[in-house]
Amino acid sequence: MATKRVSNLDVARAAGVSPTTVSHVLTGNRPVSAQAAARVRAAIDELGYRPHELARSLRTQRSLTLGLVVPDITNPFNMHIARGLQQAVLDQGYFVLVTDSAADAGSEHALIDRLLTRVDAIAFSGHYDHPDELRDVLARGMPVVWLGGWERAREGFDTATTDDYGIGVHATEHLIGRGYRRIAFLATREESGPGHRRVQAYRDVCAAKGLPVEPALVLHNEVTKEAGAEGVRTLMGLAEPPDAIIATNDIVALGALSELMREGVDVPGQVALMGVDDIDAASLTTPTLTSIPLNGLAQGRAIGRLLLDRIAGEAAPTDLVFPAADVIQREST
């Protein structure tokens, strides 16, 4: 049989004070005598009282919840972002509501709309741009951090971005330094955002080194293992296949590696392969996968601290830029 939930009134009766005094002790909004406060805390401990969060939210107009929108919750990098974000805000009494848009524009729009009435701030890591919807969020006074939206900082958004151009430079220079000359790129679907900056860096470095960047060597697709495998089938079907492949992240690289193995292609003897993110699986494959780490945990913590600052009322848009890390070379290159 369920027991009755202990209420504010129960604590007040046990402590011999008014329910208002109990609220003042819990919130610290009004001074309470030391003796009364001690009786209230003793009653709370004895009865096992826990404040009702919904009632507290109605009083404070705060949900004590932050919203995080990601395009793929199964991507380990996004899970690290979520964990770091939660670590940063938990001590302040906040929880993180993680939502998965499945990289669908309509779902991203719907999630932004639903979160508006449920959270105190939003961290948005979308597959598509939603400037109008997010401007509406800002106009309502809700803090927003746009992950990957570096070009939006000048529009009033807080942004958090990895140096994606630097990542593209590091990846391309690594392969050129290892002697590869016909390098392909398995890129994101859209010619915009973080993926576009990585591809642009690849093009710029290849051009500076006098290496060909034929249209057929840059393939735009989803950020999935299946897309990685499909990309390899297309590239290996070229009259002159590449001798190295950069995948936009490790998920795509794992799909590419699986297809290369299925086709009997020697990695790195015939084709070298590298990814980005340095997820745990990168060091567990055969051959192990060369990658560039992003440290989603640290990024999530920084984003959480920024959102807390905004909720506290600090002004001026901030553009967090996380520097490109060095390549972790493994057997695939």
TrEMBL record:
Pfam families: LacI (PF00356), Peripla_BP_3 (PF13377). One of its GO terms (molecular function) is transcription cis-regulatory region binding. It comes from the Bacteria. The keyword Zinc does not apply. Keywords: DNA-binding, Transcription, Transcription regulation. Residues 10-60 form the HTH lacI-type domain. InterPro entries: HTH_LacI (IPR000843), LacI/GalR-like_sensor (IPR046335), Lambda_DNA-bd_dom_sf (IPR010982), Peripla_BP_I (IPR028082). This is HTH-type transcriptional repressor CytR.
